[in-house]
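Record format v2
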Amino acid sequence: MGGDTPRIGVLALQGDVREHRLVLERLGAEVVDVRRPSELATVDGLVLPGGESSAIDKLARRFGMQEPIRTAIAGGLPVYGTCAGLILLADRVIGAIDGQQTFGGLDVTVTRNAFGAQAESFEADLDVEGWDRPVRAAFIRAPVVTQVGAGVRALATLPGGEVVAVEAGNLLGTAFHPEVSGDARFHERFLERVRAAPRRR
Ligand code: GLN
């Protein structure tokens, strides 16, 4: 492993862990599954995959991962969350199940399953601020960001105005799944952030 190879953890409790691993490996990262605090302590960045946010939350608490992840986020660890992962980063969630918690850190309100039954899943070409060609985005029972706090940048919106990609400091979140549609640019953006961050290990 070269000194410049970032070591990225994918929180592997539930969800589309494999898809993230493939994209990140293609981009030259070393990728490890993260299920325990000792594994979290070894990574330069963390991906929270898509899946079911309430299930990931429950498992994270059962595995003693909630506090370590909150501490890592507060300490500046770069984290990228897709879909359920975005929900887990949000400070506030509308439509959460009873008792559902998040790691938080991202000053946004996210509404779960925002497209309801009329559009369980769909794809769209999205313009992203500063990018020269749109991203093909797969939305699967996706949330939207319904309120954006000060210091949070909206990176992409749907034609209806719904915010679906946000960035703030060390945190990046997309309501869609670039790891499914095969567009690596959000992962690249995340890895740039990881490379720029002070090394934690
Ligand atoms: N609807 C899911 C949730 O609330 C997210 C769906 C996804 O990650 N594709 O967790």
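The pocket of glutamine is lined by residues 50-53, 83-84, 87, 112-113, 140-141 (CB under 6 Å).
The helical segments are 17-26, 37-40, 53-62, 66-74, 84-89, 178-181, 185-196.
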